[in-house]
Design a protein that fits this description.
The protein is α/β, with parallel strands linked by helices. The chain contains 16 helices and seven strands.
Length: 381
Amino acid sequence: MSNFDSIRPFYDAEANAAIREIVDDPMLEAMMNFTFPHDSKDHWKDLMLHTHSLRDFQINFIYPGVRKVLEKSSDGLSIGGFEVLKPNTSYLFISNHRDIILDTSLLNSCLHENGLVLTTSAIGDNLIKKKFLHTLSRLNRNFAIKRGLQGRALLESSQLASEYIKKSLISENRSVWTAQREGRTKDGNDATQRGVLKMLTLSEEGNDPFSFFEKVRVVPISISYEYDPTDILKMPELLAKSRHEKYVKSENEDFLNLLRGIMGTKKRIHIQVNGILDKEISEISKMEISQSEKLSQLAAVIDQKILSGYMLWPSNYIAHDLLYGGEEYKSFYTKEEKNAFVNRLNEKVDTKNTLMVDNFLSMYANPVNNKKKSLEANSVI
């Protein structure tokens, strides 16, 4: 048995057997009916049963599904910065995280369309407890990050994940996607957790764990949704946080978020590649500061890159003006766009609950404030 068997995707040699395990599952049938509405069940099943690699599964079934999701629930996907990436080259993509499934699925679609190496992507094991979802995630080249651990178990799990990521990037030339923080950003404040960066270095032996970042190509990614398809589902946790209460998820909450993220309204989406941090990492590595301070420096660089590449939509500017009671950004949206956003707010939120309204608006307005601060700090404006 491999050390990584508890977290890794399937090997290509295991793909066909795994497909046969789920090919008659009603959830798969629903997915394929959505993806290939004009194909018979016998047709897509036959194609699946003759699939023998993860790449073929991703390109022939997952990729068309993502395109169909974009067609049905968005006003299109735009991209920027992909020209700096080279074919047959692995990258460590560190991204802001808004949607459970779509963030990494959309990135992989863009990588495929640009002839680039697809990623193996981190996913919390709390999201794949159902057997079907666990099998599907492994076919889609996800590796599991174990949640809810403490103490020694957490350290061992983090070490294993770090070793798997390093093996993927360096030994297998496979790109890796990971979020800049544990879990999705709920309040619009995208910030890199130093703990995530520390986890990545755990596989590095010797006295300079930070040197891990010099051996790989770190690429910050910004993902921007005009409408967050799960905005209202994030409200209970935000309200609990604002009241300083402990938030406990409902039994099927993660699954509902997953489904809403896929099919909920998004309007426009943008994915921005924010360069490769070779120079920045080299400069930080030379600093005579502690490992902890180096991680803080790198987190700050990643934050600045992600914020600079974040696409602000009319929804962000409208929410900002509504939240602060002004018209500072009225030139960035039309009356029709404002009316549509206000209608969305009225439909989803109890407008008599001021705290709920403020939390909803802050979710969209915070990226405006954060990008402005980032630009000012870097003397761009």
